[in-house]
Design brief:
It is built from nine helices and nine strands. By secondary structure, the chain is an alpha+beta fold.
């Protein structure tokens, strides 16, 4: 018996260069208006409006999805003309994604998630990571779309989970030829448990914010004390994301600067810090 073999997602041939493979083109896995796509620009930013609530009273995802503003043909028109790339909006389908980042330890730590059944997958933009797609058991919600599983940054070191946010796609990425597999039960249970814990932590912070100023200050000091503790190298990003989320929720003044300074002390470079803060802002409060 051989051990320490490479997982299937590292040994599969990735040769298909189609934008959306046939295994993800089945209409029954998407909402009534098909997969929702959004433009992805050279600066790494996406087009607006895919969040549940739009900025300054503008329409959010549901209304724009109904108006076909995220329609595949509409977004691909700009892709075909080289105006932008594109990203999936995951809440438009019963599809979730494990984003394994080879640069941040994902290749080594993905095994902590247990057995990952073979499924349709693509390489990442850098070629040093993988996106594994799974079919989830979910039903369409008229206010949130498919939203049973929220996004989770750093489910283990170097692996992010996308359930409602965006998964980026660039022309250099290639697909394998596997069929879409169901999300395994053990991973579903893990995600829902983490989601429940995060919701509870968020509720505790919000309830404390309703108390007197002294209680709020004590809570904020406890969070800052947690930030100052030693953090092992392999857990820096995940731990800082969790603490930074609590800092943001607890309304700690200049939390971005405080978190950035601590991250720099721990050895993160400026790009990693910017990405960390951007992820907290986008996903931490959800």
């Amino acid at each position: 018996m051989q051990f320490n073999q490479m997982p299937w997602w590292r040994t599969d041939p990735y040769e298909l260069d189609s934008a959306i493979p046939s295994s993800l083109a089945m209409p029954e896995i998407w909402g009534s208006n098909g997969p929702a796509l959004v433009p992805l620009f050279a600066n790494g930013k996406t087009g607006p409006g895919w969040g549940l609530q739009g900025a300054d009273g503008r329409p959010g995802f549901i209304e724009k999805y109904r108006r076909l503003e995220f329609a595949q043909r509409r977004v691909m028109y700009g892709v075909d003309r080289g105006q932008h790339d594109w990203a999936w909006i995951m809440r438009s389908g019963r599809v979730v994604c494990l984003d394994i980042d080879g640069k941040n330890g994902g290749l080594e730590h993905a095994s902590e998630l247990g057995f990952l059944p073979p499924t349709v997958a693509e390489t990442s933009k850098s070629g040093n990571g993988y996106h594994l797609f799974y079919l989830s058991e979910d039903t369409w919600d008229s206010r949130e779309g498919f939203a049973r599983y929220a996004d989770h940054i750093g489910i283990v070191t170097g692996v992010d989970f996308r359930g409602t946010g965006c998964v980026y796609h660039y022309p250099t990425q290639r697909w394998n030829t596997r069929s879409l597999a169901p999300l395994p039960d053990h991973l579903s249970e893990m995600l829902l448990k983490k989601q429940s814990a995060r919701t509870y932590q968020k509720s505790v912070i919000h309830k404390t914010l309703e108390l007197d100023e002294m209680e709020v200050l004590l809570m904020q000091q406890e969070i800052l004390a947690e930030l100052a503790k030693p953090i092992p190298v392999g857990k820096r990003n995940n731990t800082l994301f969790a603490i930074g989320t609590n800092m943001m929720e607890a309304k700690i003044e200049d939390w971005e600067d405080k978190l950035g300074d601590r991250a720099a002390q721990l050895g993160l470079d400026s790009d990693e810090i910017d990405k960390l803060i951007a992820n907290i802002t986008k996903y931490g409060g959800k």
